[in-house]
Amino acid sequence: MDKKEIDGNSKIEQLKQYRAKNAGGKMTTDAGLKISNDRWSLRAGKRGPRLLQDIHFYKKQTHLNRERIPEKVVHARGFGIHGVFKCTKSMKEYTKAGFLQEPGIETPVFVRFSNFIGNKGSKDTAIDVRGFATKFYTQEGNYDNLALQFPVFVLTDAMKFADFVHAAKQNPVTDVPQATIAHDNAWDYIANNQETAHFIMWLMSGRGRPRSWRMMEGYPINAFRFVNDEGKSTFVRFVWKPLLGVHSLDLEEANIIGGVDPDYHRNDLI
Ligand code: HEM
Question: Are residues 99 and 50 both part of a single domain?
Fold first, then answer.
């Protein structure tokens, strides 16, 4: 595979080809029809009622009504940042992946942190699982890696995922709670599916209330296979260790901060 020279600006360079300027051009509808203005709807006379045949107004309003993208069923509340991954030790013995060959190689990354159960508009500090999705822009193409802040998962068979999510999301009658799993449906599931026990211990510990996304471990949980230049494969597991150490919020702190600044974790990175 072709290897490209990459640095922190590579992504911006790559995007350049898709950028277009249309300053000075005529304003048009979605279908390309020229329009003279985007601010006044048609009326019957100067003070008359608005006219339904104003298709531009009709399109603009219906677009607004329908422009919502439904939020993800899980990990809806997310926040992304750019960064750099620096290889500090050669992994040549286990993998031929270019970005892990030599100490010092820097690879631009984009990371999306998210809460698992919390809805898009819920608070950052709720007791919840955190996830982060890391996209490495390597010389050989994009490499994606997912992690949660616990080393264990809530289930062993993916068939139960939908059941757990239905139980953990807000009660369908009251739509409460919005940000965490504190209701009977969730506890019924937990009590009747004993393989959740280990995961629930982590969730109910301080690890379920990280102080900052910079103070959280990350576990991709699954085992992966590395293949080296000679074709020899090795099973590996990844762990992300925060340079700042692991720190949590007290429950009371998390509740107060969540009220004062629901965007506490994202504001920490802005
Ligand atoms: C039983 C297996 C699992 C199922 C069925 C499942 C399902 C899902 C679904 C449906 C989404 C939302 C995708 C979207 O709308 O874009 C998601 C997102 C995510 N999952 Fe899982 N998941 C599972 C296990 C895991 C595990 C083991 C991890 C951690 C290693 C994980 C980490 C994540 C993360 C970090 C996201 C957010 C991705 C992003 O920010 O783009 N999941 N998962």
Answer: no
Secondary structure in 3-state letters for 140-158: CEEEEEEEECCCCCCCCCH
- CATH number for the domain spanning 46: value is 4.10.91.20
- CATH number of the domain that 250 lies in? 2.40.180.10
* Ligand 1 pocket member 153 (CB < 6 A): yes
Confidence of residue 2 (pLDDT cuts 50, 70, 90): low
DSSP single-letter state for residue 215: G
CA of 158 to the centre of ligand 1 (A): 11
Ligand 1 pocket: which of 71, 75, 112, 217 to mutate (most atoms within 8 A of CB)? 75
What is the number of other CB atoms lying within 10 angstroms of the CB of residue 30?
9
Q: To which residue do tokens 């494969």 refer?
A: 233
> Is ligand 1 within 6 A of the CB of residue 131?
yes
The H-or-E segment that residue 199 falls in is: helix 197-203
Ligand 1 pocket, 72 CB below 6 A? yes
99 and 150 together in one domain: yes
Q: Ligand 1 in contact with 162 (CB < 6 A)?
A: no
pLDDT digits (tens, 9 = 90+) for 156-166: 999 999 999 99
- Total structural domains in the chain? 2
What is the whole-number distance in angstroms between the Cα of residue 109 and the centre of ligand 1?
Answer: 19
Residues 161 and 255 in one domain: yes
Query: Tens digit of pLDDT for each residue in 12-45?
Result: 787 888 888 878 888 888 888 888 888 999 999 9
Q: What is the mean pLDDT of the chain?
A: 93
Give one word for 45, left, alpha or beta, with left for phi > 0 and alpha for psi -120 to 50.
left
Half-sphere exposure of 166 (CA within 13 A, CB side): 5
